[in-house]
């Protein structure tokens, strides 16, 4: 007889494993407030061609339950949206001043600061966890999210361009590994809480929360992570001492696949498509959405890439652009071979730039 069967009546077992109790755990949340293993979100640019032209607050959404792009039911600045539902848990933890949770919010462009912190990682995200589990959100939106004391909102500066976000729910032990990744990526944390009982497990987060830089770590570090429901991820974290284009020099070669890459192309030092190593990286030029709208990469601030061919089905979402000055910035990407995420992002690509500057249509 198991311990559970010896101690628990059927009624108590039903209560223990009821969805309502599981929903109380820290997790990525969908637009109904339900716990999900992961979600991906693509905020559309303000000006697009076709049926999707809008305010710059609409987004496409998919998660572990709804495994293809669908229109967001809310605007990205609403608390009912997936980002608002997920971040709301962090804000509640802040308000409760609980010693049972850890949270950290980071961005190289901090709300109200009016400046970019180029000495820290070109990283944007937030996390919340307790001793059981938590979530990690990686996104591309400057000046987001607001300080907890300010409540939820979305910056006007983030409306014009496309943006991406990915949320993954992890068991507590995975955050000990994520802490090691932060030693290389060196994010600028502007709001955090790290109670004493967590500090031994999260020494790099402790340093970053205190405004210090962690001790020098590896130039680059690759971590294998697993979501609470068993989804496998790879996280690439490079330091500012690894001076190279992360897409070409590391990610494509490590994953052994040619990549189609989407990143911010307003920089004067934009990098061209690169075919110099075994695996190539091509810049995406034009995106087409399932909402019958299209937009050019010049309208997009997101950072993601997908395998050129369908055999390996890698998708990576992260922090860094394909720009010369980004070689000197720390940051990274989280990558997955989830076929639904791959198909969703791969089908967005309409046109890319070949290595001889020719225009290539998918």
TrEMBL record:
Gene Ontology MF, one: deoxyribonuclease II activity
CDD domains: PLDc_DNaseII_beta_1, PLDc_DNaseII_beta_2
EC number: 3.1.22.1
Pfam families the UniProt entry points to: DNase_II
GO annotation, biological process: apoptotic DNA fragmentation
Keywords for this protein: Hydrolase, Signal
Family label: Belongs to the DNase II family.
Signal peptide residues on this chain, from the entry's feature table: 1-23
Organism: Coturnix japonica (Japanese quail)
Tree of life domain: Eukaryota
Reaction catalysed by this enzyme: Endonucleolytic cleavage to nucleoside 3'-phosphates and 3'-phosphooligonucleotide end-products
Keyword Calcium found: no
TM stretches of this protein: none
Cellular component, GO annotation: cytoplasm; extracellular region
UniProt keyword Transport present: no
Coiled coil (UniProt feature): none
Record-given protein name: deoxyribonuclease II
